[in-house]
UniProtKB/TrEMBL annotation:
The protein's name: Galactonate dehydratase
A GO term, aspect molecular function: galactonate dehydratase activity
Enzyme class label: lyase
EC number, UniProt record: 4.2.1.6
Organism: Hungatella hominis
Mandelate racemase/muconate lactonizing enzyme C-terminal domain location: 125-230
Alphabetized UniProt keyword annotations: Lyase, Magnesium, Metal-binding
Tagged with keyword Metal-binding: yes
PROSITE patterns: MR_MLE_2 (PS00909)
Keyword Metal-binding annotated: yes
Cross-referenced InterPro entries: DgoD-like (IPR034593), Enolase-like_C_sf (IPR036849), Enolase-like_N (IPR029017), Enolase_C-like (IPR029065), Galactonate_deHydtase (IPR023592), Mandel_Rmase/mucon_lact_enz_CS (IPR018110), Mandelate_racemase_C (IPR013342), Mandelate_racemase_N_dom (IPR013341)
Length: 382
């Protein structure tokens, strides 16, 4: 079997799908995207296509190393996201070729289902208590929310109190044991992160995400020492070499590699094994589409330290189209009491609505993230 071509498709709300074609009629799907830079990653996938056309798609490890090590410049969000989308598609092909889910070719599952959480609140979180209650009534046992709006290095305690009030409203509307993940989204700098981490302890959050950016990973240990809440990060790290520095820095309880940013299944499985050696949990980042989610579930299936899975059904970013619009097997993405069963279909387990993908690509999206400013006019972290 040989790779004979690669198609790339820009689809709403902000995704890029990759389709790898073979001479035996088996095709595989992946998601290769940096949110806000989808066209850039799309171009990178198309550049990489010439390196792998004619190769055996079942030789995934060899192709991964060719795409990574064959380039003088390597790593980073664009290159690793392009590799990730191709890697996902190759695992999809390999599973279809052998007639089994990809996880069966990665050692077999160590669980039958995966716990998931749901997003609430939006970019500028509001009415999170009501939204959390609705998610609980829908069967979820955990949610995630953005913690705050923009924060200066040193900012008003009025903003701190607003965060505490929102989290308190979730506890009031759910119960003591309902899971609450609080995403600082890299909007917070160390001085205020330490304040928030300590004050949020009373609500027993599930974890604090990106209390500071990984550019400041040496600060995680200091922030973790301020509270007993698990610290999570990793969506903006792209390889095992990035994670090596994070594990050495310490202070992290949960890693969140993104299967569409960090080199795909091949790389994230290795990163997860590294984390297990440090007694660190895995909770893959996935505010993306159905292919990315299916890829995450394949890795969750084979990683003992996987604890919970992000998914973007109902997330505030999904405008115009959403996750299940692009799949024919919607029932396989049913959540039951906060869990989803592992995919059972061959490959990644997602049956893509190719006709809709082609239609959407006819008018490509141009999604960009907001650019925020502080009251003084300086640029704020979004």
């Amino acid at each position: 079997m040989k790779i004979v071509g690669i198609h790339t498709w820009l689809v709403r709300p902000r995704w890029c799908f990759v389709e790898v074609l073979t001479d035996e009629g088996i095709s595989g799907w992946g998601e290769a995207v940096i949110e806000g830079k989808a066209a850039t990653v799309k171009a990178c996938v198309e550049e990489m296509a010439e390196y792998i056309t004619g190769l055996n798609p079942l030789h995934i490890e060899d192709i991964w190393n060719l795409l990574y090590r064959g380039a003088f410049y390597r790593g980073g969000p664009v290159l690793m996201s392009a590799i990730a989308g191709i890697d996902q598609a190759l695992w999809d092909i390999k599973g279809k070729y052998h007639g089994v889910p990809a996880y069966e070719l990665m050692g077999g599952p160590c669980r039958h289902s995966m716990k998931v959480y749901s997003w609430i609140g939006g970019d500028r979180p509001a009415e999170v208590g009501k939204a959390a209650r609705e998610r609980k009534e829908a069967g979820f046992t955990a949610v995630k929310m953005n913690a705050t709006e923009e924060l200066q290095y040193i900012d008003s305690y009025k903003k701190v109190d607003a965060v505490l009030e929102r989290v308190a409203s979730i506890r009031e509307q759910t119960d003591k044991y309902f899971g609450i993940a609080i995403d600082f989204h890299g909007r917070v700098h160390k001085p205020m992160a330490k304040v928030l981490a300590k004050k949020l302890e009373e609500f027993d959050p599930m974890f604090l995400e990106e209390p500071v950016l990984c550019e400041q990973m040496e600060d995680f240990k200091e922030i973790a020492a301020c509270c007993s809440i698990p610290i999570a990060t990793g969506e903006r790290l792209y390889s095992r070499w990035d994670y090596k520095r994070l594990f050495k820095a310490g202070g992290i309880s949960i890693i969140q590699p993104d299967l569409s940013h960090a080199g795909g299944l091949t790389e994230v499985k290795k990163v997860a094994s590294m984390a297990e050696a440090y007694d660190v949990a895995l909770a893959p980042h996935c505010p993306l589409g159905p292919i990315a989610l299916s890829a995450c579930l394949q890795v969750d299936a084979v990683c003992y330290n996987a604890v919970i899975q992000e998914q973007s059904i109902g997330i505030h970013y999904n405008v115009g189209k959403s996750v299940l619009d692009y799949v024919h097997n919607r029932d396989d993405f049913t959540f039951d009491n906060g869990y989803v069963k592992l995919p059972q279909k061959p490959g990644l387990g997602v049956v893509v609505n190719r006709e809709l993908v082609v239609e959407e690509n006819g008018a490509p999206h141009h999604w960009k993230n907001p650019v925020w400013h502080h009251q003084d006019g300086s640029v704020a972290e979004w």
